[in-house]
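Appendix B, Record 12. Input sequence as logged:
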Amino acid sequence: MKEKEKYREDAEARLRELEGEIERVRGKAESGGQGEQREYEIRREALEKGYEDLRMRICALKENADTPWEKIRGEIENIWSELKHSITMAIERK
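Logged structural output:
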């Protein structure tokens, strides 16, 4: 159980980092031209949906769910990887 708790704490810390990165994308959306703003807004909305999905799965680690926590961890890592890639692409886009 200790491993599960440690992983959950680490995942929550990474989730807080992700909030800041989504804010950076939001800032880009607000500072761009009309077409650029819309594109970033679409990206931001997708990121926030992924963020909520990630948050819900991390919350599932706190509960005594029927799903083995290792399976939930795999799902979290997949979502995390996709979100990090999307954020990187959104921030680095010129």
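The radius of gyration is 15 Å.
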